[in-house]
Every structure is written in C-alpha cells, then in structure tokens.
Amino acid sequence: MLVKISKPFWQVLSLGTLAGMRSTSAPVITSHILSHHQSKNLEHSPLKFMQSKTVAATLKVLALGEIVGDKLPSAPNRTKPAAIGARVLSGALAGAVIYKATGNNLIVGALLGGTAAFASTFGTFHLRKSVVKSSHIVDPIIGAIEDALVIGGSVGLARLA
Question: Coil, strand or helix: which one is 132?
C-alpha cells in the first residue's frame, strides 16, 4: 500500500507533541504508518529503515519499556538536557521522515517535529506537576493517564494515515 498521509504539517506537529510526552512515541507511530504504507520517496533515502516492519516492531517494544520506566522512582526528569535532547531528536526524526515520505522538505519536517517536541516537553512537564499538586493524586497515576493520552493520540494519528 502506498503512503497516504494527507496533512503532513498537522501530523508532524502532533507527532512532535507526543514526542515531548513520551520520547519513543513519535518514531513508533511514524514507523508503524510507513511499514503499512510504503513511500517511494524514501526508497533511496537513509530514512528508508523507518518503513521496515522489524523496525516498527522493535520500536513498539522500546515504547512499552519507556511506559514502564517512566513510573519508576529512578526515572529522570524529562526536562534534563539528555531527556530534552532525546525528545527533540525523536520529534525531528518523525517530522523529517513524514515530510520526506510526502515529497516535502525533510529539514522543514525535522524543524517542525523537533520544535513541537521541545515545547511539549516543558508544557506537559509543568501540566503534570500542576495536576499532581492540585489533585493530590500520586504522580505514577497521572503518568498512566498521560500514557493513555499518548496511546490514544497515537492510534488517532495512525488511523489518519
């Protein structure tokens, strides 16, 4: 099946936003979509690996590990430089691949995805801390709700493609 991504700008902003919440989410969704809807624009690109069913399956396993790891007391703060970098790179990768797959400029896609991930990292961090403080619900439960939002958003994005 050929790729049928109809609104790459909005999809990349959405992927970047999800990357800010869970760093593995954007590459997982992107690879899932492209493993089912191949793009000829990626045939001779170093980004072709994102169309592999094996890569898609591996990324899904990594995403499950991130969901579990986020609940551990030893989980690093998402606003630490390394965590921010991972989220921005995740959003940038997803954005570049989606834009390249749809025949658009991959640098523009990377910038959109990375910027959305950066903004979402801080926005969702402060939102999560605020909800924990005001609701008196323990952080892991709020984290689980955040996971549900990421999964729901991911399913919605996958269905758009």
Answer: helix
